[in-house]
Amino acid sequence: MIVVMNSEAGDEAIERVVAQVKELGLSPQVIRGTHQTVVAAIGEERPGLLEALEPMTGVEKVLPIMDPYKRASRELRAEPTIVKTRGLEIGGKSIAMIAGPCSVENLEQIVSIAIRLKALGASALRGGAFKPRTSPYSFQGHKLEGLKMLAAARDATGLAIVTEVMAPEHVPMVAEYADVLQIGARNMQNYQLLQAVGESGKPALLKRGMSSTMDEFLLAAEYILDRGNPNVILCERGIRTFEDHTRFTLPLTTVPYLKQKTHLPVIVDPSHGTGKASLVAAMSKASIAAGADGLILEVHEDPKKAMSDGSQTITPAAFEQIMTDCRRIAEAVDRAL
Amino acid sequence: MIVVMNSEAGDEAIERVVAQVKELGLSPQVIRGTHQTVVAAIGEERPGLLEALEPMTGVEKVLPIMDPYKRASRELRAEPTIVKTRGLEIGGKSIAMIAGPCSVENLEQIVSIAIRLKALGASALRGGAFKPRTSPYSFQGHKLEGLKMLAAARDATGLAIVTEVMAPEHVPMVAEYADVLQIGARNMQNYQLLQAVGESGKPALLKRGMSSTMDEFLLAAEYILDRGNPNVILCERGIRTFEDHTRFTLPLTTVPYLKQKTHLPVIVDPSHGTGKASLVAAMSKASIAAGADGLILEVHEDPKKAMSDGSQTITPAAFEQIMTDCRRIAEAVDRAL
Amino acid sequence: MIVVMNSEAGDEAIERVVAQVKELGLSPQVIRGTHQTVVAAIGEERPGLLEALEPMTGVEKVLPIMDPYKRASRELRAEPTIVKTRGLEIGGKSIAMIAGPCSVENLEQIVSIAIRLKALGASALRGGAFKPRTSPYSFQGHKLEGLKMLAAARDATGLAIVTEVMAPEHVPMVAEYADVLQIGARNMQNYQLLQAVGESGKPALLKRGMSSTMDEFLLAAEYILDRGNPNVILCERGIRTFEDHTRFTLPLTTVPYLKQKTHLPVIVDPSHGTGKASLVAAMSKASIAAGADGLILEVHEDPKKAMSDGSQTITPAAFEQIMTDCRRIAEAVDRAL
Amino acid sequence: MIVVMNSEAGDEAIERVVAQVKELGLSPQVIRGTHQTVVAAIGEERPGLLEALEPMTGVEKVLPIMDPYKRASRELRAEPTIVKTRGLEIGGKSIAMIAGPCSVENLEQIVSIAIRLKALGASALRGGAFKPRTSPYSFQGHKLEGLKMLAAARDATGLAIVTEVMAPEHVPMVAEYADVLQIGARNMQNYQLLQAVGESGKPALLKRGMSSTMDEFLLAAEYILDRGNPNVILCERGIRTFEDHTRFTLPLTTVPYLKQKTHLPVIVDPSHGTGKASLVAAMSKASIAAGADGLILEVHEDPKKAMSDGSQTITPAAFEQIMTDCRRIAEAVDRAL
User: Rounded to two decimals, what is the model's pTM?
Assistant: First the structure.
């Protein structure tokens, strides 16, 4: 922690900061410049330090110098985490292609699309049984019935099931049917949910909040890891900015940045990230070229009849083309698909 | 709903859109321009319409024309909603001043600050028993014990208690002790929580999500209203933007905008909105001048010893000055404090 | 400057940083922690230091600790700068109300609105002769003819003229007619223009760029101050964020923040800041309550016939009401209007 | 143009809107719904229409339905524009790699790096003679001398020269030495500069402003095209958002979006877009996978000694690796490098 004193701070203020630094269990070192004095506080940078130092008299600002997450950090664990479950493997050489409809609509739909996707080479099936919707008047998902339909699709294809869980009390139920528990962007800082998923032991697919920083994203993962669950997949799905020609802004730089900072696998959701079916193919290729360990894509037999997110959903034919194109990109970065 | 066809869309595509509009229960009207054709779809704009029309062949974009919320709308109810509970009144002529520490730390602290704030004219006591924290290693609140301390502070002062609830399963417990259930910014789209608060019947203080649009904010309120709870207080607490000199960007234009759109009361949180104690007074005055129905402020006897959010917390002396200054502003806009 | 070494940086890397710090004319101080080493580089923080240190081997990040601007800083000059020209005074006790149409349309229009505004108590007349327009097909202003019309309006009323200058080569021409040279948001970092205005000796009204940080804003002012022109008025006019219910997001916290950091006067433009006439009155009051030294407002006899920016333009009747309301707010913050 | 009337608008208000639409030369069509009436205004959507309709009594909002740019639009010209100059070709099958230092520092430096880059396969040489700098105290470039050094580097290698021009009055001078005139992000809406570059007849490399929408970006290109210069290269270089782990947010979705909307070539600047040398390689590959027609990269023999932007500058060795890696990606998308 670096405590920058303002230019008018006298000796007394500096001494009080030094004393406070000691009281916090850190070791202070005073550096006097011609304009300003700086107090370096050396030691573990646990939460609360900044808040304890910043309001003090004479303090201009406090600059943390260490990353706030630990278990997610590459410094703790250099080799990559590979999440494996029922044939799905994310974080190794092979790139995972998770595909399926936004919502599970009915048994026939989910089983037939699963069979189709399996044939096209998908690695896992996604599909929403619990749907977080902006409006209370929108379709909220088939819930338990939807989970059962997903299980039937798994039985028919062997594909692992990725589905969202929205509340801590639903975790046991969803964990009974799903192979991977997805935490949606709106719930990235729903700490009770993170903890419940952490305790479930099931692999978690954690979507980045639409206005989250990287530190916040990795600290959300830390909540899951801290409960003893090492299988966290990070997913970039777009952030909210001033851009209005796409639904969100998809910042792919997240991918190489996270790969440097954490050992956890990183995937991309170009469907939500763009919000437009016509942009999904290009961003799928770009994600893999940027180093992503996988993609999660919305695919529906007839996007305009999808019960949610039709605008960004692609057809199986488009998915087939993406598989072909992404395979070429994967090879160009020494990966496989 | 206005469906804009692209310039190459032929008659067949237009006819399919017309048929789809009818099937959706809306009445279509085709407007042919020299460059483009537009299909107006007249009728109730329920969710799902956009998604059903946008992916169709030949459609360039779909423009909604009505507000998506209903119960929160001024069109449904012209007179302002006044939320009343245990001496606290928000939305009428008088401006509510909700004050207290970020976290409930111990019984002595919360009772003594409550007595002090009551003497200075506060309208209600805020204090966190459940604390949403970015890091799993930060202090998470005293939970049930904290609620009991808040109740003791209420007994000592008569001040209504405003405190945050973070998970649907905690709602009954928090509702037993609190007068107003606060939903934090990170939970603005935690729909299970919104519904549980809606069913509790207790007044709700709903904070704006840090990247929420006004439509999303009002639809989150709609989730509560839709469960039969009419007492929703909206709170602007700052949004996330590129600005780095404050913790968040506090967009006060929200206040007059919401007052035009909804009958619900609107308050402002200048503590989180700025993140800096030295900016709280000016933004408190500005909020009231902009038309806010109240403020919620973080006040602590010794901000640098606060267990959370010290940097943005003011002292009782600063609160006293804000009361004096805001009283003058309130009078200048024909309100009282 | 604080140079944070990464955890694997060895002694050799640290020594190279120490040597580089010395070569840059700063005095290094090494602080060894258990996890990381930090090198404090004490001395003048001129531009280029960060770039010279950050790419070095073993360096994780470099944290500047001083504000990059000098002449604009309150540390250099504690008393406020009051800009005075032809009856207009900004930065003192009195609040300046600069009003007028977006564009100068014709002689009759500008003279008659000037007379009307003068009667209503405006402090200066604004009006665009050179218009920066997003589209090349939009009305670009009457240029020299427009400047002459503004001069005629000044002759008729005695009001000081505030008008935009868009290119360095136009500065002499505009300076001949105007009392205050406005630099628009899109030109905030047009350095040739800033320098030319700095050399003109005329007071400058500098609008914040729509994605500028406070440091960039004050450094843009520094370009003008550095050319010997002390009369710079800073103007907050809204920033670009994800918000879509207003044209821009108007962050009034800028006002108290800048008043703490700089001696220069600070005004607000609620017309551009909101983009909606119905929100201008509330934000005018809020700006003054936040501590602004003045407002700049778009007023037109018939907004729907304005040649630009009609949506955010108010009528003279609305301006009259704003004068009345703002006078009350000004008194409530011990200012006058 | 779709004019949405508010729900209280009476017949009189609707008739006035109809009359105004006619007066503006458009043809009105009234669509009455149960809740709201909508007036469709069919015809050319020139600038100024929105402003003329939005302030009218009874109007809730006005929705444009056509793109505001014309010459840049794919609707006007379906085949791609290929910009060709001195061996550099952008927009065809081959991907252009523009590389060089941020600033031209001295003759020896620029000639030797040019020879090196030529040998590594670069398509053109970039280098700044005029440097836009946030601070007036930063190095501003060698100006005319810098241009002469660039010309010498061209003589030595045959590489086309790409360099920035910052003011309209410098255009003739810069055009004498450069092959492509770069317009920086801060000047994207410096309309005098755009027009001067348009009149120069030299190819223009237009960088996206850091908070520009796609419409604004294409309208800025339109300013150049409108002056008879068809050779405009669009460059995505990152936008300003809340993200703080990179210098800017690099939204690669811009690439496929622009390729759909315009016939102009689109390149990416991963150096500014990330601000970190360690992220440049991944984003270079991603850009090409997304469909970019080229890259512009900052390369310096010794990044830590660069006079500007050292943190994001790569070494020639890193550039060589990027060439190798990008060649593979280019082949995977049926392009060449």
Answer: 0.93
